[in-house]
Amino acid sequence: MEQKDYILREIEKMAAILGAIRQKLFGGSDNLSLSVEKQFEDTKDMLLNEAGFDLEKFMLLDKAEGNAYLSGIKGLSVENIELLAECVAGLGSGGKSDAFRLYYEKALQLYDYCNDKSKTFSLEREERIEAIRKMLSYN
Fold it and tell me: How far is 89 from 15, CA to CA, in rounded Å?
């Protein structure tokens, strides 16, 4: 019972962290004065320090290594990974270079991982995947 409670608390903590990152990236009037680079660095630091997720490392891994890395992080649920994918796609929405394209591709990888791990079909997830694919085809 203690193990289950611990895991639930860790999952809730991860969801709160990813929610805060999403809010920092996509909303909140207090963030308007911050530069994009500062927001990006703050997001990377928050992911690493609070969730144990190294975004820079993940960006360098291929699909198999990335999936293994994700499965090794305790507290990541399908919902948390979807939030993470949304954040990563948001980081890619800043431009059209190959670097930004990589963020979209990694977001797709995260969504594919969710589809593999989830026991339910998500229409919202599929809509996000389709939107990212359209962005990739335009760039």
Answer: 17
Lowest-confidence segment of 4-13, 54-63, 83-92 by average pLDDT: 4-13
SS (H, E, C) the chain: CHHHHHHHHHHHHHHHHHHHHHHHHHCCHHHCCCCHHHHHHHHHHHHHHHHCCCHHHHHHCCHHHHHHHHHCCCCCCHHHHHHHHHHHHHHHCCCCCHHHHHHHHHHHHHHHHHHHHCCCCCHHHHHHHHHHHHHHHHC
- Residue 27 makes CB contacts below 8 A (sequence gap 6+) with none
Counting every residue written for the chain, the total comes to 139
pTM tops 0.85: no
Closest CA to 23 of 106, 86, 103: 86
User: What sign does the CA torsion over 56, 102, 91, 51 have?
Assistant: negative
Convert the pLDDT of each residue in 3-23 to its tens digit: 556 666 666 677 677 777 766
- Closest residue by Cα to residue 43 from 92, 105, 10, 87: 87
- Please name the residue that has the structure tokens 């399908």: 78
